Amino acid sequence: MYTTIKTLWTKYKNKSEIARITNHDWKTIDKIIHNIENGIERPEKKEQKTIVDPYKETIIELLEKGLSGVRIHEEIISLGFSGSYSCIKKYIQKMKRRTNIFIRIHTDPGEEAQVDFGYVGLTLDNSGKKRKTWVFNMRLSYSRLDYYEKVYNQKVETFIQCHINAFEYFGGVPEIVKIDNLKAAVLEANFYQPIFQEMYKKFAEYYGFKPIPCRVRRPNDKGKVESGIKYVKSNFFKGRIFKNETDCNKKLKEWLQNANNRVHGTTRRVPSVIFASEEKEKLKKLPDMRFRFPKAGTRYVYHDCHIFVDYNYYSVPYEYVGESVDIELDDKLLRINHNSKQIAIHEKLEGKGNFSTNESHYPKYKCISTTEMQEYYQTKMKNIGKNAERLFFLILSENKSVWIQTVRGILSLTKQYPPEILEKACERALIFNVLTYQIIKNICNNGAYNLPIDKNYMK
Fold it and tell me: Which residue, 75, 159, 213, 307, has fewest beta-carbon neighbours within 10 Å?
């Protein structure tokens, strides 16, 4: 108000005009003009003290701990504060407006890349089916050179493959890759102690870069790639219709070439030119061979302390029975992890129906010798009848590696059929040299145990 009145007075407006323009009382205008003419400057506004002031440091400390305004109000009331919650709320809002400032981070050539996914809606694949679609973006922070790729999921394998494609597009690897807290790469959203997916961690070690997850709800940590995602959404995907997946990929590749040759809005330079002249030679060399993906997934640990992988069985410590575990299977080894901790490792089995069992994975009271186990199951089969016992020995001699599963299956049929039926089924199985659980089950189920047997066949 003081400055406005002074300006109008120096422009030869009279007091009545100034009062009308500023909508202030004539007496107020007269008083201020009197001070101006007598060289009295505008008095400094004294900062008014509030009942919140004695507790400012405490409020800041509690905010840093993540407490809400309500909780902070409760805490400082216990320290003698007598004001209302609204006082605290207003102070917190005022302080956040002042502290919501970020520093623009500048990086050296080849130092950093930022990656993220952005959802772009439904697009047609090559079969004509509409599918949810994301765009992957890796942006070099120094030159702003972009790599974009359309994908249909955010799996670990897809995430890694996009990295590989981006590194090959750039012709090298940056020192650091900043990632969003994607499920594909980070299991726990903790900036200071990230627990990376095992596969992504190994991939990063193989290519020699350091992955750094961005802090939760801190978009400025990866502001460059955030801008890249917005740019591709608005300048490529928005308003375009693609015939199919091939058409979309082709047009995105062409658009990317033009995008990297434009004048960037922030740097006011052309990304491809900066990259070629200043950054490309600073990137790390690509490895001689691409990263090889191990087969990954989750498996359930059964009550026999084994998991089932590619038609074979591998043991797991008994503590994990009933749990789901993560697996990584390559050409030679199977690694079994639980909550990012390796709990078992086995050589890869060939063929089907084979077992790799570490006896230490069983509780001690369950560890019995092979001979004891054979005697145990022989007795159970003998209790059914002599034909069942004979079948047991035949299965034992012919299927040394998987005999126990077959015998257990046959014994489980006692829950559905009386011993005399199962004994007849075993007799028929012996005559026709049948050693599989499923066929014996079928014999019981369809009543084939009562069918006459051709004596000539028996000869």
Answer: 75
Find out whether 310 and 356 touch, Cβ atoms under 8 Å.
Answer: no
Question: What kind of fold does domain 112-282 have according to CATH?
Answer: Nucleotidyltransferase; domain 5 (3.30.420)
Of 26-40, 310-324, 436-450, give the lowest mean pLDDT range: 26-40
Integer Cα distance of 429 and 448 in angstroms: 10
Q: pLDDT tens-digit profile of 213-230?
A: 865 445 555 567 788 899
pLDDT in tens, 67-84: 778 888 888 898 888 888
**Cα within 13 Å of Cα(299), Cβ side:** 27
How many Å apart are CA 289 and CA 408, to the nearest integer? 47
Query: What DSSP character marks residue 284?
Result: B
What 8-state DSSP symbol labels residue 294?
A: P
Strand partners of residue 176: 112, 210
The identity of residue 142, as a single letter, is Y
Q: Where are the alpha helices (DSSP H) in 266-305?
A: 271-274
The Cα 443–Cα 43 span in angstroms is: 106
